[in-house]
TrEMBL record:
Keywords noted in UniProt: DNA-binding, Nucleus, Transcription, Transcription regulation
Name of this protein: Xylanolytic transcriptional activator regulatory domain-containing protein
Organismal lineage: Eukaryota, Fungi, Dikarya, Ascomycota, Pezizomycotina
Gene Ontology process terms (BP): DNA-templated transcription; positive regulation of transcription from RNA polymerase II promoter by galactose
GO molecular function: DNA-binding transcription factor activity, RNA polymerase II-specific; RNA polymerase II cis-regulatory region sequence-specific DNA binding; zinc ion binding
Source organism of the structure: Hypocrea virens (strain Gv29-8 / FGSC 10586) (Gliocladium virens)
Length: 177
């Protein structure tokens, strides 16, 4: 993960600029879990555990999209005392997200579908349309395995979880059109 201050800026940037276009995440739920991730990094807790690779992939996709609108100060090689403004390496976040999500591809979880949806948007924007189509297919098949196309009240009484399930399925439907 990047330094906490940069990571927080990337998350804020994602929710300000990208999330309104493709709201497959629930901001409050994401931010709560994201905060626990920073606590668990030091103590080896649940959020940073190997069984949460899809979640970590999702976080890296949020970083990738957030980096589109964030500037960081970096040393400028032309002047010893100077510095230049640059963007975080969104391709690095994407590659890390892909590795993490694909490592958990056999564990059908909603975080995996969310990560795959964001990956498909990234690939579409990068004009990697063949890869985009493959990732969309993985997202839809995983969503079907989770029953996201079914009435969410049959799966949970939690209103937020019902909303997340609807948003993720809608995201799959829209990207496939």
């Amino acid at each position: 993960l990047p330094q906490r201050s940069l990571a927080d800026r990337l998350v804020a940037s994602y929710f300000k600029h990208r999330h309104p276009l493709n709201p497959c995440l629930h901001e409050g739920t994401f931010r709560q879990r994201y905060a626990r991730l920073w606590l668990s990094r030091d103590v080896g807790g649940e959020e940073a555990a190997p069984n949460n690779l899809a979640w970590l992939g999702l976080v890296n996709m949020v970083f990738a999209f957030g980096s589109e609108h964030v500037q960081i100060r970096a040393p400028y090689h032309g002047s010893p005392a100077g510095s230049a403004s640059t963007k975080p390496d969104r391709a690095r976040f994407f590659k890390r997200a892909k590795m993490l999500a694909f490592s958990s591809i056999l564990q059908a979880r909603i975080e995996l579908v969310q990560a795959l949806l964001l990956m498909s948007h990234y690939l579409h924007g990068s004009l990697e349309l063949n890869h985009c189509w493959t990732v969309i297919g993985l997202a839809i098949r995983t969503a079907q395995e989770l029953g996201l196309y079914l009435d969410s009240t049959n799966f949970t009484n939690d209103i937020v979880e019902q909303e997340i399930r609807k948003r993720v399925w809608w995201g799959c439907f829209v990207i496939d059109r």
